[in-house]
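Protocol step 4 of 6: structure prediction from sequence.
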Amino acid sequence: MPDSSPVGDETLLFDLTTQPWIPVLRTDGQQDELSLRQVFEQASELRRIVGDLPTQEFALVRLLLAVAHDALGGPEEIDDWTDLWSDEKCFAPVSAYLDTYADRFDLLDTTAPFFQTAGLRTAKDEVFSLNRIVADVPNGEPFFSARMPTVERLTFAEAARWVVHAHAFDTSGIKTGVEGDKRAKGGKVYPLGVGWAGNLGGVFVERPTLRETLLLNLVAADTTGVRIDEQDAPAWRRDPCGPGGAERAPSGVRDLYTWQTRRLRLHFDGQGVHGVVLGYGDPLSPRNQHSREPMTAWRRSKAQEKKLRENLVYLPRDHDPERAAWRGMASLIADASASRQRADAPDHLRPQVLEWVARLVSEGHLERGFLVRARVIGPKYGTQQSVIDEIVDDSVSMAVVLLHQQDRRFAEQAIAAVEDADRAVHAIGDLATNLARAAGTDTEGPRATARDHAYGLLEAPYRAWLRDLAKSDDPHEQRTSWQRQVHKLAVALGNRIMAAAGEGAWQGRVVETRKGTEWLNSALAGKWFHGALVRDLGRPDLPGTPRGTAEGPGTDEQPDSETTVKALA
């Protein structure tokens, strides 16, 4: 079957530099679809990329960053970035750049199609369903209801977006072997992992316009901890990929943002795309790529260090769909420099893109009160990474002073404020557990429900508190104010849980505690609950009272967080 179909005497073309294919949201709220060239020309008038899925938006932002890095020649150092930031027409060189490489941005080209391999085929010349690249129908199992039960056709614009997404987030699993791929055995290539961005807990910085968003994520080459080689280049400045894969190390951000983890070829006619051939491409282990990949946090894996007999192993820190972004503030803003002063390496590294913004504020290029959003996007794969179970899409708004490398006061209080919320939620969970035990009923369901409700109740207040934190000169005073707010919200929720506990909890029963047996009922459970809040948050009615110093009947009787109260038979 031919790769492309001529129409009359003309061969089909779809030039991504001039044809609209990138969905955007304008600053006036209108949606549109633009070409690569138009996106950069109108970046100041655009709010963000929209995408069919959040992961598609992340992949397209990385594509735009690769173009910007290459077209603008860096930035090599922070002063180059400052010049770009102050120039409203900073993306003007992109137009000439796209002219130079326009032949590599033709989706339907017969010799070097964009992000594809010309002539890619299987031994039996099979052409497969587009379900293989459309992530909302992985392996024929509907993930979203937008396309059910199969994807018969895509427009050229849609296909272009899914091609970019496939390289970034395609699932793993056994794939059909293509001719020329030496890894194929019996017509199959066995699992080699997900697309490169699928390994990451994706993080980037957002502002109200796409221009500012792209610039704030444009990490300068001289940034400490970031390795960008002089020969770093995106996929379209490299030789077209043949079938199979190449074992090599990435050269920098341009390379990683366009990493060819798959080999694919679209099949189309004059009306659009109707099939695809998809195979594995260039493999790349995420291990210790923290100096190359800036758009994820990293965690140290001592288990892998022991297994591989390496001194230091860092792996990307992926997102937990059960945990909202604000609860993971430490992974976004905690500075590893204090840990580096110790003999041992830090257990966690925040994303280098946030280290870059930290540098901008620390060196005075951004005002301390400048607000940004840390956007987190990533998939949760299931069944041996062969399907996408969930997609995380969340954000946290903060002033850049929280990232300041010298003044850590605001960051420390922001992280501690999350810990305050965690303690309050734990106390509420203990209250629900004790009430259930007092009534002689199951504890797991009530505890989980109470904790989920508590986190949901605290989320909006924390986000508002965090957004306004930099407006104060004293973050410690703001932290005290937050503790009072948490205490008030926790007490109100605790009272509602107690009121709904029922007659059984009110009457109570004999249970076993660390100090022996005791008659546990809703009154005692409430006493323990209020004692825990005083211990962890202080007394809101006595301003300035430190945690753990307030007096009150029975506060010393509150069991610690690990205590399990067992009902007697």
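Step 5 (inspection) to follow. The first strand starts at residue 6 and ends at 7.
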